[in-house]
């Protein structure tokens, strides 16, 4: 496909923010696209040259992109940065630079979508000395062959942010409208297939070639992580028990651990560990791979569980914020294994010796789980669990969980199937109230004085009813200088525009925040304000779609 055609189409998508109109434009376009190109369109229009579970990364930063634009156009880094800061978008700056370029490339090759996609994928393979310069050269090569509009989208694709507002929901409905009948049921079929495969290219091609039956037949496959089932929140143990299952015999209780959700894929000696964000973190956890290799008896399986770090001296669980250092650390792994040992608590199995278990009730899945591994205390265990006998025994179990330093309990419905990616109420979490909120950073302000290099005041948003972010307060305490410096680095990469000391950010960084109370307040878009918010942690394991909702805030407000 000519890249110019792709760029024109992206312009049309960008020109409307009406969801239905976007779905229609995208669906019409998918219908006209030839079969081989559909997966490319589906990937690039969402800015995803790699899916999160592919270990590769393009490795293109904003700084590198500025150099590439300059190399291709010769307009000068300062001018590019000026336009970038005026428009808030490096893609726009690239378009401007191509329009004003002072050097023309001698040999220009027409740009195709295939070439852009393949070139960007190849960048991930560059390694070692000179690899950054080679990346600059390749991106510059693409920009040199671009007209202004094409350059805009080349740069946005390289940076992984298309600014078109095409999220998973738009893509789901567009695939359903392009290749199925566009009904709500068709969208659901597409969504389910995506939750199981996390591969929209595959989902779109299957919908196109094999329709709804084909989608239904798409199944879990090892080494392609699924979206894990999520929990609803109950306001107390009694409510939770009532909510989770109609039959008392179906209520299953487990400790709720404060660790990292992992899914572990096993095929003989091939073992991989993925996070809830579907990232492959196998290299960080050689100890988990070893434990699985020694204790998992199933030849092929997909296990769901929580990894919890503990204090080597005392055996006490450590807070997630400390444990998360192990997830991020990509060097000196052996030292981290010693310093922060982990226990793997397993609580589900989604595929076992070739059988997909999504449709199997939890009761039977747990039997399968027991057959899939041999526990080893402190290394690999079943999550501590108990059937609900009486309300008193359930409460004792909850208190035991808290006394042992865990977050609370999960209540699960033993008769329920596994719903990837959904908060359907088949599992419910119960934790003490006034618990921290997970909020996204929407804006920030440069500090003054000693911390003037830092974005020290952070505006926080919860999710409103439209899935947008509504602000609920600002945060300026709770972090150490070190944490603030790391946070500033992270946020600087997300700056969209600056006005004096205030910066607007792409809402991507999720923070866990504690506070003393929630008040009603006209000052913020949400209508609420957190009283005395304090920073607890950066939740790298959560995406913006996971931040707490306005409904949650309202419930907490009413209950306090
Ligand atoms: P929280 O911030 O309360 O951990 P969350 O947004 O991370 O919530 P939820 O779906 O609300 O995620 O809560 C479920 C999470 O609890 C799971 O993703 C998992 O990481 C963790 N967890 C701990 N123990 C269990 C357990 N026994 N069963 C299921 N999930 C558990």
Automatic annotation (TrEMBL):
InterPro entries: ATP-dep_DNA_ligase, DNA_ligae_ATP-dep_bac/arc, DNA_ligase_ATP-dep, DNA_ligase_ATP-dep_C, DNA_ligase_ATP-dep_cent, DNA_ligase_ATP-dep_CS, DNA_ligase_ATP-dep_N, DNA_ligase_N_sf. DNA ligase that seals nicks in double-stranded DNA during DNA replication, DNA recombination and DNA repair. It catalyses: ATP + (deoxyribonucleotide)n-3'-hydroxyl + 5'-phospho-(deoxyribonucleotide)m = (deoxyribonucleotide)n+m + AMP + diphosphate. One of its GO terms (molecular function) is metal ion binding. Pfam families: DNA_ligase_A_C (PF04679), DNA_ligase_A_M (PF01068), DNA_ligase_A_N (PF04675). GO terms for biological process: cell division; DNA biosynthetic process; DNA recombination; DNA repair; lagging strand elongation. Coiled coil: none annotated. Keywords: ATP-binding, Cell cycle, Cell division, DNA damage, DNA recombination, DNA repair, DNA replication, Ligase, Magnesium, Metal-binding, Nucleotide-binding. Its cofactor is Mg(2+). Residues 335-464 form the ATP-dependent DNA ligase family profile domain. This is DNA ligase. The active site is at 256 (n6-amp-lysine intermediate). ATP binds at residues 254, 261, 276, 306, 347, 423, 429. Belongs to the ATP-dependent DNA ligase family. HAMAP family: DNA_ligase. PROSITE patterns: DNA_LIGASE_A1 (PS00697), DNA_LIGASE_A2 (PS00333), DNA_LIGASE_A3 (PS50160). Its EC number is 6.5.1.1.
